[in-house]
Structure formats: C-alpha cells, structure tokens
Amino acid sequence: MTRRQQANVAAVALVLCIVAAVAVYIFRGAPPSKPLSLTGVVLVQNADPRKQAPIPDASVTATNGAETAYANSDSTGLFKLTLNKGAQVGQVVTFRFRHPGYFPLDLTRISGNEIYVARMLPLPQPPPAELGRPVAVLGNVRVRYTERATHTINVGSIAQAFEVVNTGNVPCGGSGACSPDGKWRATIGSHSVDAGAGNQFQNVRLSCIAGPCAFTKIESEEFLDHRRSLKVSIRNWSDTVTYLLEAEVAQARVTDVVRQSYPAKFGPTMNFTLPAAAEGPSILAEMNGQEIVYPMGPDLILSWADCTVKVNADNTKLYRCDLKPGFQFESKH
C-alpha cells in the first residue's frame, strides 16, 4: 500500500470517528444543564433610601420560556428561585412581582451571577373621608420591655481575727515550711469562713495587726462554692502574729427591669430592635393626645399597624411596623 493510500485510509477513519461521536451525542442527547439559581430582594420604591423597606410575602415568579419557578419573599424581602429546564447563564429571564398593597411589577433581565433588586410602588391609600373617620395621630411613640437583671445587696459583714502561731529564730534545716530565703522554720496557718446559703463574700481585706508582721506573707485567698466560702493561708517565719479578715456579705437577686427605647420612624414605617433577653414588648403612644399602652403579644397584633419580626444571628429581634390606613405619626417641627 502506497503512502497516499495509507493517508486516505487514515482520513476515512478520522471521519468515521467524528460521525460516530456526533451520532452518540445526538442519540444520548446534550449533557444536562446546571440549575440556574436566582437570588434577589423586594423593596418599597422610594427616592429616600431609608424608606426602601423590605416587602415580605411578595409573590415572585421567574420564567426562561421552558420553565417557571415560584417563591415568596421572606421578612427581609429576600427571595430565591431555581430554574432547571434549559437553564443557562446569559439567557433572558422574566420576573413577575405581586403583592396586594403594591402595583404589579414585571422585570426582564439577563441571567447571571448578580443580585436582583425589585422595587415595588405602593398603591395609593384611600383618603380619610372614605374611611369614615378622621386620621388618628400617634405621638411620643416608645417601646417598653423588661429584662432579667441580677444585682447584689449587702446583707452583712464579717471581721474575724486569727493567729498564726510560730517560734522565731529556729533554723529551717531544709525540712517543712521555711522562710522565703530558706533560712528560718515557718508555719503556714489557714483560716476559713462561710457566708451562708445564698450569700457571697465581696471586698475581702486581710491585714496583719499584731506581732512581727514584717516576717509574714499571704500565701493564698481561695473562694469556693461561688464565693460563699473563703479560705486564706499565711506563711509566718517569726513569732506568733495576728491577722484580721474583713469582708462584706452580699446576696444576689434577680429582678425584672423595665426599659424603654424610641423606634426609628421613616414615613408610615417604624423599626426597632430588642435585646435577645427582652420580654413582654409593648408600645406606648399618645393617640390624639391620650397616652395608651398597646401590648404586642406573640402574634404582634396592633390595632393601628401591621408588624413583623426578624430574629438576627445574635438572637436580637428586629421589628418592623407599617401603619394601617387612617393612622399617621405625629410630625416633628
């Protein structure tokens, strides 16, 4: 076989391989595309960024022509959708946003690695005349809640003298307790006191009041059982000394502390955050000049606002309350 014939055979074989690969691709179908994840947020349309509050429970749909995905925005306005059929980056996706309190919004975007921000325009509120009553004005709005707080009160004190017996000028000899320089024999004396059940020691003072105090050293002060018991040890390498132990006896008590804070108000919306340990939140407000307390309860029910709560990573709680028709916050001049 000539070289030209060999080359022709090789070319034919290559063509057959390509044809076979194409046939397999067509027979088996194109490899499945990866799911397309779409993430975004729904906000109130407003020129003031501080009033672009998140819109919870907005209905969100996204379609690429081959498939439609559905989701609802959460309390932060966040939504997440996934398209599986024919999904790929760079294709046209149509979003539809719906909420009873806002004008419908349709957006067309090129899919990609981005965050989709949808801003919905609120529907106009009916004038007060159509509500059959005058607008109620809310002023001096505060948030009231309670927290558990631990504080201590003084319930007594102690003043006890004790001796550390020793004979001075006795060589140590290298055995037992000695003076810090190892020259003289020493005694280590201990004294213990108990504050009683539910009590604890505070502001402990330990002083040498008689004898050759210059030749003594406080070895340790040890608290036990949550500061209920106290043990002190003294090293003495001269004649007998007297020490005075003094301390206050305190008792820890847990009480409910009432706290107040002022919410941030932007237009018809107010926001406030409560600590993780806050309990029993309520709203204090002057309604047309009369102060009223509005307990929120676990269902966050207020007669003049719709409220939601979001628990943050540190367990603090972010509250958002939107005024109902017929109510407004007092304007500050």
Structure overview:
- This protein has 3 domains: 36-120, Carboxypeptidase-like, regulatory domain (Immunoglobulin-like); 128-148 and 256-329, no CATH class; 150-254.
- It has 2 helices and 20 strands.
- Strands 8, 10, 13, 16, 17 and 20 form a 6-stranded mixed sheet that branches.
- The chain is mostly beta strands.
- Strand 11 (216-224) and strand 12 form a beta hairpin.
- It is elongated and about 100 Å long.
- It has helices at 3-28, 128-131; strands spanning 36-44, 59-63, 68-72, 78-83, 92-98, 105-110, 115-120, 136-164, 187-194, 199-210, 216-224, 229-236, 241-261, 264-266, 269-274, 279-287, 290-295, 305-311, 317-323, 327-329.
Can you summarize this structure?
The protein is built from 2 helices and 20 strands. With 333 residues, the chain is mainly beta. The strands form 5 sheets. Strands 8, 10, 13, 16, 17 and 20 form a 6-stranded mixed beta sheet that branches.
Task: Supply database-style keywords.
333 residues, single chain, 6-stranded mixed sheet, elongated, Immunoglobulin-like, 20 strands, 3 domains, mainly beta, 2 helices
